[in-house]
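Lesson 9: reading folded outputs for more than one chain in a single document. The general rule is that every protein is listed as its sequence immediately followed by its structure tokens, and records are never interleaved. Here is the first one.
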Amino acid sequence: MRIMLAVSTMTAGGAERVAATLVNHWSAIGHKVALITVASSDLDFYPLDQRVTRIALDLSRSTRNWRDFVIVNFKRVRKLRSAIHDFKPEVILSFLDTMNVRMLLASIGMGVPVIVEEHIDPTQNSVGTIVRILRFLLYKRARAVVVLTPGIARWARRFVRAEAIHVIPNPISQQFCTSGKLEAERDGHRVIAIGRLEAQKGFDMLLRAFARTAEEHPGWILMIIGDGSERKQLQALAAALQIGDRVVWERAVKEPEKELRRSDLFVLSSRFEGFPMVLLEAMACGLPVVSFDCPSGPREIIHDGEDGLLVPPNEIDALAGAMSRLMSRKDERGRLGERAAWIVERFSLAKVADMWSAVFEQALR
């Protein structure tokens, strides 16, 4: 099968990791695969199989107003259409709202089935008026609309026929599945969090929660891995909370599993998500986890009290309490971490790839 996967960029992020995982898998089992982005390939963060055809339009730039938005996106759609013509895919898979709209426009009249995926909770994520209207109009054209959770499927049913909607979770990349044991590699008392340093990820709330545990747990540190526009503000907040010397900041890394396996507790403090990859990855590494029970994602992953802890969304005191509980109880951390590692079976690449294959077969029929 000839498959084209489209995503805006291949910088560090959950959707981008899933894109790389899927195209590498499909190439390895014999499909002809192209990965196309609006952004330049110079920004690529994740390694790709050498058999994947990499197409980069290098048309990523911000727009100043709605007129500029229309002109720039017209160019992008035209280039996408040309790439479809040249590669001749049998099926197109597009990730993320804005890219989905572009690809549905680009493929008009070309006879290629397009499958779109929403990688984040659209009820929480603002996409702007133009994209929201186009999504409402164009998603009806998609051969299938793939979402990450049943809750997001309910949102999609408001304007997409029910038989076109499929729920497919994110798969766990093989690099996180090599070991569920932490003891041999553990450094000491370390909380870890990973993600883009943006408001969505709630690192400001994590810092406040950690500060509330700091006096009771003087030997613990917090490591935050990621890049983003809020780095300086978050560092200033850590200093204001008098925990600046106990917070370690690291840039995005290609092998986060190494830092996960050296840590003792993972925390997800997001205000909203889709199906958080980093939570899957931490659990696959055998880490005990604490997460806000935000509207989409964590509840589908964590069995509260069995393989992790869920706390009410945006409640900093509750987050601090759950963190402090696990920081105090090594035995409970061990029990939760051992159960967490079973996530590898629930969301294996083989299982998720089979689900995608079924959607492709239906789309081609």
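And here is the second record, again sequence then tokens.
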Amino acid sequence: MPLSRDEEHMLELIETGLQHQDPEFAAMLTVDGVERTRRRRIALAHGCLWLGMFLALIGFAVVHEVLAAGVLLVLYGLTILVFAIVRILQLRPPGSGYLRYL
């Protein structure tokens, strides 16, 4: 349903006021801002994925020498891996990837 002239004018006033009051928040609401934030979160999730794999592998190597330290590294690594995988799956666009047929 289209907006009336008064409603369009009111919306423009709200947008202008928001841009003057909080330009960072207004930039986040644009398509570029949302995409930039999404890419940053995906990069962080992939970094956590690599960190989790690294910690788990180091833990498996250390477990033969110092059992407690190795087990802790493996557990921390697996926890970070699970967190990263969940975040990557949450950040995917809807309808993409392997899970769309399930």
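What the second record shows: Residues 5-101 form one domain.
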